[in-house]
Amino acid sequence: MRFTKMSGAGNDFILLNNLTEHIDHALFPSIARTLCRRHLSIGADGLMVVESPLRGGDYRMLFYNADGSAGEMCGNGARCICRYGCENGLAGETQTVETPSGVVTGRRIDRRNYRIRLTDPSVVDLSRPVGALGRLWPCSYIELGNPGLPHAAVPYPGLSGVSMDSLRPLGRALRHHPAFPKGANINFYDVTGPDQLTELTYERGVEDFTYACGTGTGSTVLALTLLGKVSGTDVAVSVPGGELRVTIDRDGDAVKAIWLTGPTNIVCEGEVRDEDLTL
Fold this sequence. Notes:
The chain is of the alpha+beta class. 18% of the residues lie in helices and 44% in strands.
């Protein structure tokens, strides 16, 4: 079984091309759990699978979190898979990728940078305060696509000076809070300047902080744009794995598109030889 490992601003993925591997879909949750284990296997935040399109796209993207759960979509993963698709002849420099939550459009900026249009928001609740660890936390709740990928944007002043260890209990408590029926990816943010912010995401399915979250970054900038805290044009978001940029296209109060731009990295390619993997 051949694999490619890629990273998008520190969000890392194992990619399998099922157009050539022909693996039974029922095995993907187990494959994700095994191969995504850090120190014990290849290690990654998630597993991406290239499949044949069903609705006229260039190809289809299936996504599984590190715990084996199926994900609706992944923004940084979509940017990485667009590079894979372009460089492996699955599509041109502009491409359409089918995902469970909708069609994602991707475009090559240069060899390593890709821009995607995230799936449109299906739920936007700019004020959903949540009680956790003895206090009330202001949150904005966004779902992207249909079925929606859930995100909570939570302001946290001084975020860059806070350790992941100290913030982890709050991330875990909010991620499982009943205010979010599907659970949620928790995106802590701090606006640090005009159209600049830092962000740290506790991800559902990884059950820990990741170095970046593309859909979380898009959702956070969307909320801040609608709240009037950023312009929504080429907003720079600093994450532990680098920098992502987001632009929100609007027509008055209506959101027309969310664009996510950032780097990709091909880490390695090879053959899976993990002896703990049962197929």
